């Protein structure tokens, strides 16, 4: 474990601990179960769970489940799995904002009794109109002065399901002229005749995010309620509720800048559209920036945590993080930890004409050049091998150090070979090469000449077929959703997935789900955790070899 990077929140908490204002911190990660978690959520998870871990505190997992029509049990399950996979554990049971619905209802009644909340019959459109704008104060609703008795009665009847969905809402009575629009009598409860994944049909009214969040924090004894900057304007309201209700604690809201990553969307709503329109193969499609998609792609928990450490936590909004930083984090992890293997993506057959039929030799090759704890591999050579089509050129330029007619190249871990003859089909395409081996070059340089190129290869007899999926960015532009007038789907990369029928070295037959490899000279790959089987191995390209991240 490396020491965590300092950031303003961490520093603040350290000061508070030193100054004795807090003894034990409690944070929470509060996803709404309306989709899968994405890389932006990973930033929040690492911050909230990381802070608790580093400060000897605790972090809760709380589902912010106030929107029953958009939420599902399947999302709850996926979110829990993602948090655990990242290596974090929540303190105690999983919590739900809906656990507090009874308490929230009692607090709504309390506000009514205090003359600080009222039932409003305006329609949603009228409410918007009356609310005013940044430059214009709002107007009071004609229902604002209802008596506490009437309000209590109406709220109870709303709860019983007596009214239709947009007929009534409960609002706080704060200040219709406040410069902060969030304080212009915000909505506390809406009528929804929807059944809820946790509370079933018990409720016909559901509390708003604002009325739920801070009070849930208070009930749980959260000390630091960390959220993204969009909620900065809501902080006065967050505090208003805490100051006007008999809550057991006074948590503090602290905002930080959300993560935006180029060539990527970090919005559950938009990612859901990709899933619903079947543009991707589900939430965990390896092209998705979801945690489960990245997992399937071959990202490790350590690499995602490393990335979150690298980007840091600030209040500076609007920055766009280069996805090259994310790929750098996984590439350096895999460079150190992935097994090596040879795999030919676009096979071209080579006959080694001076290797007798039936001859076989086998090399013991390191699993990783710097890791003697990794098992060695047996790599067999036979008369017929495959090389990659890209490693041969018929009319090669001078600087082409791979194979060309009359030229020599070294087979990785084996001999130097020379290309003597190029075999073509009727259409003039190269179908096979005839080469000869210089048997005096195993583990040593050839006499009197330099052979620069080294290429990977696989024995035809022993190679195993693999389906290899090459992934590229889903979007062709850095900010697919920047322009509000253009559909982000117009920026989809039509070549975000290319499938190859590849041939891999025999050691790959052992690849279990999620086994990670460097295919030498090709890139980093991971056996698909869902569809790869011993009879039909499927590998996802996690990332290429070349690092383009400039520090
Ligand atoms: P989305 O817009 O993708 O649905 P959200 O904020 O509505 O995101 P929540 O489920 O409410 O999703 O998010 C849970 C937590 O994750 C919140 O505290 C939120 O601030 C944080 N979070 C969401 N997106 C990001 C992001 N891009 N960067 C950092 N934190 C994020
Ligand atoms: Mg949301
Ligand atoms: Mg949210």
From TrEMBL:
Q: Name one Pfam family in it.
A: tRNA-synt_1c_C2
Q: Which residues bind ATP?
A: 32-34, 38-44, 228, 258-259
List residues of the tRNA synthetases class I (E and Q) anti-codon binding domain.
454-528
Which GO BP annotation is one of this protein's? glutaminyl-tRNA aminoacylation
Glutamyl/glutaminyl-tRNA synthetase class Ib anti-codon binding domain location: 338-438
Lineage: superkingdom: Bacteria
Residues that hold L-glutamine according to the record = 64, 209
- Domain Glutamyl/glutaminyl-tRNA synthetase class Ib catalytic, residue spans: 24-325
Q: Does the keyword ATP-binding apply?
A: yes
Output the Gene3D superfamilies linked to this UniProt entry. Glutamyl-trna Synthetase, Domain 2, Glutamyl-tRNA Synthetase, Domain 3, HUPs, Ribosomal Protein L25, Chain P
InterPro entries in alphabetical order: aa-tRNA-synth_I_CS (IPR001412), Gln-tRNA-synth (IPR004514), Gln/Glu-tRNA_Ligase (IPR050132), Gln_tRNA_ligase_bac (IPR022861), Glu/Gln-tRNA-synth (IPR000924), Glu/Gln-tRNA-synth_Ib_cat-dom (IPR020058), Glu/Gln-tRNA-synth_Ib_codon-bd (IPR020059), Glu_tRNA_lig_a-bdl (IPR020061)
Q: What class of enzyme is it?
A: ligase
Give GO terms: molecular function aspect only: ATP binding; glutamine-tRNA ligase activity
Question: Which compartments is it annotated to reside in?
Answer: Cytoplasm
One CC-aspect GO term? cytosol
Name the SUPFAM superfamilies for this protein: Nucleotidylyl transferase, Ribosomal protein L25-like
Motif interval(s): 'KMSKS' region: 265-269
- Protein biosynthesis among the record's keywords? yes
| Motif 'HIGH' region, residue range(s) on this chain | 31-41
Q: Which family would the database say this protein is a member of?
A: Belongs to the class-I aminoacyl-tRNA synthetase family.
| NCBIfam families cross-referenced by the UniProt entry | glnS, PRK14703.1
Subunit structure and binding partners: Monomer.
Q: What is this protein called?
A: Glutamine--tRNA ligase
Native source species: Vreelandella arcis
Record lineage: Bacteria, Pseudomonadati, Pseudomonadota, Gammaproteobacteria, Oceanospirillales
Q: Gene for this protein?
A: glnS
